[in-house]
Amino acid sequence: MSDNKPTKTALVTGATGLLGRQVVRAFQGLSVPTELSSKADWTWEVKGTGFSRADGVNVLKVDLEKGEEVERVLGDVSPQVLVHCAANRFPDKVDADPEGTRLLNVEATRTLARACASRGILLIYISTDYVFSGKPGEAPYEADAATGPTNLYGVTKLDGEKAVIEEFSKAGKEGLSVVMRVPVLYGKTEEGRNEESAVNVLLDAVLKAQEGKKVKMDHWALRFPANTEDVGRVCRDVAVKYLSTSEAERTSLPRIIQFSSEDQYTKYEMCQLFAEILGLPIDNIEANTEGNDPNASVQRPYDCHLSTKALKDLGIDVSAQDFVAWWRRELRAFRH
Question: Consecutive 10-residue runs of the chain (336 residues): their mean pLDDT?
Fold first, then answer.
């Protein structure tokens, strides 16, 4: 009986965010079970941390930039795995607050990594495809491919990766940290806040276009949007794989893994899809094929498609939801 199994505890930072909510649900057993997850000889308890939206019960209020608060929550919760989702993840917002972004994306990550390493806690650090340059012809990128971020967001996430790897190496705990890179994310938003996702927010652009407002939409950069439910499931399975591997063998597991869907779209093509599902015209949305404005402060990569080979080699299910089918289900209520 599963009730007689021992428990392990997962702690999720950024648990009130777009991805964090689904990571919590996955550890709660609310996502699709997989062959690997069903083999775990323990059940999960899960707690989250947040800041502005923390309820103090299921989501504990923690300022990740304060080392003493990090130490306190790790002592109180005593997790076996920590999934670090919290980040400033919008490139334009990063450029507007580079100092604050570095504190959260790099320094807080280093503090967490040091504290987890000293306690023997597995750390899964969520990173991004934006650590790569995305130059035409380079993708798909393997996990060990040369990095070369084109904007500050990618730089800070790459520095966060390095901080995690360094801190666990210094502590002699290399087998207990793993960087997991993901592409642009979409999924269920909270209270209709489509701005939580760079994909969901395109729905707002389609609706605004019905008001007669002309909108230019990128039709150059290739995106491979991943559903947050899938990413949550993979995080859970990675935790099961690493924690069920002996300490001696764990050091041979990869330090960097990557998850992505194989669905390829430009932002303009996503808008076309949403409009088709909703039965709306998009005459006011203009496809912009010019690529990056050389004078823009944020330069976005062309194609950062991630290879999932490292995950497949671990025996982890990398299947992804069908982008069109998910949105057809999600938007059914909106169709008029």
Answer: 79 96 94 86 95 81 95 97 93 86 95 98 98 97 97 96 98 96 96 93 95 92 98 98 95 97 98 96 95 83 97 97 95 67
Instruction: Output DSSP code: residue 196.
Output: G
- Quick one: CA torsion of 94, 220, 201, 199, rounded to 10 degrees? -90
Q: What angle do CA 119, 176, 112 make, to 5 degrees?
A: 55
Cα–Cα distance between 73 and 51 in angstroms, integer?
Answer: 13
- Look at residue 1 in the predicted model and tell me its pLDDT: 39
Q: Which helix (H) or strand (E) holds 169?
A: helix 152-170
Show Cβ contacts of residue 109 under 8 Å, excluding neighbours closer than 6 positions. 84, 125, 160, 163, 164
- Write down the pLDDT at residue 257: 98
- The DSSP code for 106 is I
Whole-structure pTM value: 0.95
Q: How far apart are CA 300 and CA 292, in angstroms?
A: 7
Joined tokens for residue 25: 């649900």
What is the C-alpha separation between 176 and 120, in angstroms, rounded?
7
CA 327 to centroid of chain Cα atoms: 19
- For residues 314 and 133, give the distance between their C-alpha atoms in angstroms, rounded to a whole number: 26
Upper half-sphere CA count for residue 313 (Cβ side, 13 Å): 12
**Predicted local confidence at residue 95, as pLDDT:** 85
The amino acid at 16: T
Q: Report how far apart, in Å, the C-alpha atoms of 28 and of each of 20, 109, 259 are.
A: 12, 24, 21
Supply angle C-alpha 47, 49, 55, rounded to 5.
85
As a whole number of Å, the CA-based R_g of the chain is 20
CA distance 169 to 163: 10
